[in-house]
Automatic annotation (TrEMBL):
It holds the Pfam family DUF2240. This is DUF2240 family protein.
Length: 150
């Protein structure tokens, strides 16, 4: 949730679902003083990778409703939000957010991996899709991995 709150903050402050990448970086680094400009740019990459925002014509477009995300007045993100999660971690988080208990999700993913003889990442994305979790942004990565391409 910390990543989502961090990403939502600039959109909420500007009351929009679209921001120029520069505006987003300035909001996080200069206005909020949460990150250096380089760290804020890194956060853009993480947010895109996690499917929270899309990049369209130099703008960042929220793929969620920023107004629905609570950003407490005294909120300050940890630097671990800058760590890019693996495909498995991202899919698992999506499943948990969709309401599946974490242990049950991990067990289900492991079962899919064994039954289908695929990578843990492919099993996680399949399991997440079966439960209606938003993981479409991960499908191409898994497809490329399964076909041996990058």
């Amino acid at each position: 949730m910390s990543l989502e709150a961090t990403v939502a903050a600039p959109f909420k402050r500007h009351a929009t679902e679209r921001l120029g990448e520069g505006e987003f970086v300035v909001a996080l680094s200069l206005e909020r003083e949460w990150f250096s400009p380089d760290q804020a740019k890194r956060l853009v990459d993480v947010a895109v990778g996690r499917g929270l925002v899309d990049e369209e014509d130099g703008e960042l477009v929220a793929r969620f409703d920023p107004d629905e995300v609570a950003v407490p007045e005294d909120f300050r993100p940890d630097e671990d939000v800058l760590r890019e999660q693996s495909t498995f971690e991202t899919a698992l988080d999506a499943v948990v957010s969709a309401g599946v208990e974490k242990q049950r999700a991990v067990a289900g993913i492991n079962e899919r991996q064994r039954a289908l003889a695929v990578t843990i990442e492919a099993a996680a994305v399949l399991y997440a899709k079966e439960r209606g979790a938003r993981v479409d942004h991960l499908v191409e990565d898994v497809r490329a991995e399964l076909s041996g391409g990058e």
